[in-house]
Amino acid sequence: MVSTGKGSGPHRDGSGASGGGRRRGSVLASERREHLVRLAAELFAEKGYQATTVRNIADEAGILSGSLYHHFDSKESIVDEILSSFFDELNAANKAVLERGGDPRTVLAELVRNCFRTLVPHRAAVMVMQNDWNYLRRFDRFDYLARAEEETERLWVGQIERGQGTGLFRDDIDARLTYRMIRDTIWVAVRWFQPAGRLDAEGVADHYIAVLFDGISTGPR
Amino acid sequence: MVSTGKGSGPHRDGSGASGGGRRRGSVLASERREHLVRLAAELFAEKGYQATTVRNIADEAGILSGSLYHHFDSKESIVDEILSSFFDELNAANKAVLERGGDPRTVLAELVRNCFRTLVPHRAAVMVMQNDWNYLRRFDRFDYLARAEEETERLWVGQIERGQGTGLFRDDIDARLTYRMIRDTIWVAVRWFQPAGRLDAEGVADHYIAVLFDGISTGPR
Amino acid sequence: MVSTGKGSGPHRDGSGASGGGRRRGSVLASERREHLVRLAAELFAEKGYQATTVRNIADEAGILSGSLYHHFDSKESIVDEILSSFFDELNAANKAVLERGGDPRTVLAELVRNCFRTLVPHRAAVMVMQNDWNYLRRFDRFDYLARAEEETERLWVGQIERGQGTGLFRDDIDARLTYRMIRDTIWVAVRWFQPAGRLDAEGVADHYIAVLFDGISTGPR
Amino acid sequence: MVSTGKGSGPHRDGSGASGGGRRRGSVLASERREHLVRLAAELFAEKGYQATTVRNIADEAGILSGSLYHHFDSKESIVDEILSSFFDELNAANKAVLERGGDPRTVLAELVRNCFRTLVPHRAAVMVMQNDWNYLRRFDRFDYLARAEEETERLWVGQIERGQGTGLFRDDIDARLTYRMIRDTIWVAVRWFQPAGRLDAEGVADHYIAVLFDGISTGPR
DNA sequence: CATGAATGAGGCTTCATTCAT
DNA sequence: AATGAATGAAGCCTCATTCAT
């Protein structure tokens, strides 16, 4: 996981107890932990966060539910790990695009590609954001996600407005409204998108970019 | 509620028990019932279906939770009423558009407008569909909603393909993929759309139609 | 229960839900509630607060543990009710003594008698204070008890010092230290005192007052 | 630890397992063990026996909770060690006083001083006895403590009655009742007594002895 | 039509303890 | 002598639902 600071990152639980000098031990521990996170992520994606019980997760791992608390101090901290890892990766990728620069059309296209590329390895996290955010947002510990999203909005809207300023994009559309439509369309695709299907992540991204920039109509605008 | 048949309509449970011979009484009862449904809908929209307890609903109505069961025989039947009423209205409107006919571009634009128009009075239902469908879909009683959606998909995809056939729409896009993107983008807007804001339902619909047909770019395609 | 205000009184749980116009209902409800409190009090006294489970209480009442939460919103709120009721009664009695006035020896003797008199009907509360206060004090909700005790200390110390000022009490003893010894000796007696035994509350109080004022020695001081 | 026989001493469990043939090793082990007992004692005194988890103790020692079981075979055996060491020391001191002999007033005064002197180094044990005995007494393994207390009661009551017989002490007081009051008052002082405060152990003992023998009043009895 | 009480299933979490490494 | 993982029992609490009054 690439923790980018900026207040992101899960509220990790008192790992202080597990000392820190040994080598193999902590690597293995972390492997076990990541395995459990992956199992939980799949269940959260499939059944939803609330409907997934810690027993479901433990069953999947072949242990008792209480044993999960050797690795995590709450169900929340598991989903936190899932979500923060997703946001960290996406933010890092977006930052890289911005640093590479380019005209707004290129930047926007790359941002779209970032999303679809991140969607594949973080399918569960995106699923949770789509289905369970309305529940999770009530917990203070997830405030950092709302703040991360606000920052992302500023980034996209900035590019759209820059494009309108240089005449690349139509002037009669609302930048913020447009951003939200783009964002939602992309992420909500997680509900049906199958990388193994006819179109892979790049394919869907290209399809989406095509429609986004030029619409579905033929002929002159 | 306009029950359009076709398997739609909530699975109302043993309404025979309380629907005795009274006339005026049942009108009042029905008003009370609709009031309770509205209260529940708002809570479902705000906190999510699972996170809303029957006690929350009862509190809002100023009664005890057990008393709700004089009006509904389960929490599921409440949300069923909310969702079926939304789908009934939308299906009816879509059918009307199809009957009016017209070229695919016109029809598609009208279908988009239907959605945004329905979104306003059925905000809660759309919210529930966006946030809680992943949970609700597991119950057999809601199968009818999945079937309704399949029918709607056929309807839209049919129009898009007709448009591609007549050269109105680009040939290099995937009709089903495009439909899903359109659908998701529209409904997910319920998360931020505020009819009292800068743009009303028609305004947002127009904005969306503009981008959909012609993209956000300027200049030749 | 005589709620004397002054920040005392348990954090009573949202009784707002149970409306308030009916007569017999709320009286009965309150009777049931008090019955449960009494059962819990006896268990807390016998086994300790922590070692008493909500199941123990429910079993004693012949209901399921979850059903307790129809009457209380937590185990803490039950013990709160027990303790606040005890403190309220004691504070009220002490206030009455102060208002009657008299020389410090008389007042002190009456305060002692107050304690032993209150001990009998509130045996469980005193037991909990002796055995479980070290645990309960960690919860903010019980801060009011610590504050009540501070006020009582001021009251007693005031009387002892007044007695020293008028030459009634020895000058070579520490008022605060003496108060604490008196207080502790009295309340800790709950561990062995049995009202049905050889001495009743008044008898033990008199015995204690005799030793307190004149010591156990014979002959000149 | 001075194990005085008479059923005292902790129920040490299978120490044969870890007490192999090493000499220097067992001294070090014993030091480590005593260190852990001291850490545990402080936590028990502060938070109570039940509320202190073995993990709390292990954290304090900088090890994992499972590792404690190389030194003790249960949480009970730790508190047993704390309490038996306290009782052993007190009993030995009391025996020495009895052996020195003297008139009941002198003996009683010395017994009181014994208590306050023992209280300081065994603060935690006394705290546990005050706060957690009601819980611990349910375990057979602590029966020996109840028996030790009975023996002590006989010892004190014997001295009081001897004093009443020789006319040193008032005849109108109950020996057993008086003993319990003295005992409770002394030990419960652990809740507020601070050796570093205005009065040290001897000072508090003298204060207490003065009030005990002559009361707080001035003038003739 | 509502109340008040209860059910029963289940949820998350804690914790003393065990044991292979 | 310690770790890291797990157990198993239990704890407090929640919630949809039922039902006599």
TrEMBL record, chains A, B, C, D:
The keyword Metal-binding does not apply. This is TetR/AcrR family transcriptional regulator. SUPFAM superfamilies: Homeodomain-like, Tetracyclin repressor-like, C-terminal domain. Residues 1-29 are annotated as: Disordered. InterPro entries: Homeodomain-like_sf, HTH-type_TetR-like_transc_reg, HTH_TetR, KstR2_TetR_C, Tet_transcr_reg_TetR-rel_C_sf. Residues 53-72 bind DNA. Keywords: DNA-binding, Repressor, Transcription, Transcription regulation. Residues 30-90 form the HTH tetR-type domain. It comes from Actinoallomurus acaciae.
